[in-house]
Amino acid sequence: MIDPNEPYKIQIAKQAKIIEALINRAERGHEVGGSAYSLFESAIALQTEVWEKTKDLEKALDTLGRASNELEIAYQTQERIQRNLADAMVAMEDGFALFSDERLQVCNAQFRYLLPDVEPLIKPGLGFDDYLAAVNASKYLSRDENGGISRPQPQVTEQRSGQRFSSFVMELRNDRWFQISYRQTSSGSITVLQTEITDIVRENRREKNRLIDQQAHFLQAAFDHMSLGICTFSSRGELLVRNERFGELLGVPLSLLKKGSPFQRIIEHLERHEILERKGRRSKFASWFKAMRRGETMQERCRRRDGMSLDIRIHSLPGDGFIVSLMDVTAETQAAALLEQRVQERTAELTEANRLLQIHAIEQIKIEAALRQAKEAAESAHTSKTRFLAAASHDLLQPINAAKLYLSMLTETAGQPGAEDVVGRLKRSFTSIESLLQALLDISRLDSAAAEFNITSFELGSLLQGLTGDLAPLATEKGIELRIVPSTRWVTSDQRYLMRCVQNLVVNAIQYTERGRVLVGCRLRSNRLRIEVWDTGSGISEVDQTRIFNEFIRAGGAGKGTGMGLGLSIVERACRHLDHPVRLVSQPGRGSVFSIEVPLAAPGRASVCENPMMEQMLDGSLDLIVMVVENDSDELHAMTQVLESWGASVLAAASTVDAAALMQEIGTAPDILLVDYQLDDGDNGIETIRTLRALAGIEIPAIIISANRQRQFLQLCNEMSFAVLNKPVQLVRLRALIDWKTRARVA
């Protein structure tokens, strides 16, 4: 019966009417019933309803009071904001105005008094477009050269949020400049700002004039110090700039070389006084002037009456002007005349020389033959390189494509039978890619004229022992017995390249042997040691024995291997540089023997962990704090996952700065640093190691990952006492190297 949304006065009036109706009802009931009990019941019901209505009325009055208080606070806040806005506008040095709904709401005095004829219009309610039109029509704007008024041209741009923004500059009389800009706010209002930029414009004008004067001074100074005679003319042929050398060479009075002198007048003076000798009856100066007008370049060599020879050149300039340059070529002319005289004298000498040339004809033929052979060799090398790159590109794409297919299969068959086989095939595909890249890098280094080798003395047994672990799975997969006879001999060679050569020979023997075994052993030959690789394969014919050391060549009739035909090419190149003779003995159907002879060396003392790369993966948790610095996010994540799976606590950083900040944050130095060499923005792993060691005050063990094998880089690594791990990283060697470096620190 009572709507709570109605005004409180109406609700109270309705409640009073309801109470009055209830009382009347009670009285009528008393008259009709005449029963005391009925009257009592009516009184009780009436009292209950009165209490409920009274409570509702009290709640309504309390709500009304709170709303009144909040409204009063809002009014006070609004007044305070308006006062602050007014104070801020008064304190502003620039003109400011606020338009709401395209109508002027408030502005300061600077905004109102900018243009006297617009001032009467600046009142609350002024339309924004009307304001712009009034400013554009003001008579206080400066006039242009044609007597017109410079009108402001606002350039309205649309911001990303859809709001308008515009800014333009206008010039007032008495050389005053203002910038007017307006911006539409997020609420739809428009703020207008008037900023005086007179001082900035005048300063820019003064700086521009100063630079023009300075450039003119520099140009004149450059002209005066030139050995050439230089003179520039305007498009109307009036003299602009010249140097003293121009007047000296041309022999023209200074009165004709003043600024503004016509070019035609100078030409007429030359003809009248015949300063320059004529080669014909007609004057050539007239053709100069016409050619200059057409914008052509003219060059003429003339001779003065006193015998001086001049080289005259006329070039066009931007703006239809032109420049005239004079050069004294007397010495050159005299030299040419002298040369012409000497030519005749030398004719006899040349005849004699011709006779001598005929005597040397046979020698020339020999030289040409040698050059022809060299050219053919170069062309053959170029063809070989082209064929090499084409085949390498194809062989690179093959395993990559296979790897992508295996990845797709692995995604679809994850958790299903056969997934392990797919992973194995994927691993072999990437191993094939790695082998090919290593072969390409080795051939590139060996073909380079600056190929470097690290010749040392070492025990051969460690190399042969490493072959057992690396190649035994390949031999087992083909069902071939691989036997390597141990050796304690010491040799002198490049350890990395020698191991690469022996490994290539063993891999070839395994690939081209269908059944039987492969034997690796050593034989002593005087002061040299012969490393031999025997196999029971199909053998190599005599024709193929002369060509299998070339790129991409496989022996005819041999079983199809998985290689690219680069292994023996690497062996031949490396052993040729190292002066290690390579020999081959083979019989078709019975097998082959490849051998490499290396110099013997006196036995030395080997370090316990001289070659930690050959150690097997160690068991147990890697309870270390490892700092990994890698700029590639994917490689950083992968390395972090591997190290954490080994039990290490990993601190991952992308640069030297991040690594230093991370070490300062944890307050302690890591147990070992694992750093990539090539980082972003000129940063590198060596700088990272230096910075972190200096920050920690101790020599933190470090391993740097790089494909750089230059001798200077390896020497620097040795001086700074950190290890180098070549890319691509093999996890078994990484784990062994980490344990070796950390054990050395504890020791």
From TrEMBL:
Q: Where is the Histidine kinase domain?
A: 391-602
Where are the bilayer-spanning segments? Answer: none
- Tell me which EC number(s) this protein carries: 2.7.13.3
Reaction catalysed by this chain? Answer: ATP + protein L-histidine = ADP + protein N-phospho-L-histidine
Q: Which InterPro entries match?
A: CheY-like_superfamily (IPR011006), HATPase_C_sf (IPR036890), HATPase_dom (IPR003594), His_kinase_dom (IPR005467), HisK_dim/P_dom (IPR003661), HisK_dim/P_sf (IPR036097), PAS-like_dom_sf (IPR035965), Sensor_HK_Regulatory (IPR050736)
**Entry keyword set:** Kinase, Phosphoprotein, Transferase, Two-component regulatory system
* Any matching Pfam family: HisKA
Q: Which residues form the Response regulatory domain?
A: 625-742
Tree of life domain: Bacteria
Please list the residues that carry the modification 4-aspartylphosphate: D676
Task: Supply the Gene3D superfamilies for this chain.
Answer: 1.10.287.130, 3.40.50.2300, Histidine kinase-like ATPase, C-terminal domain, PAS domain
- What is the name of the protein in this document? histidine kinase
Q: Native species of this protein?
A: Sinorhizobium garamanticum
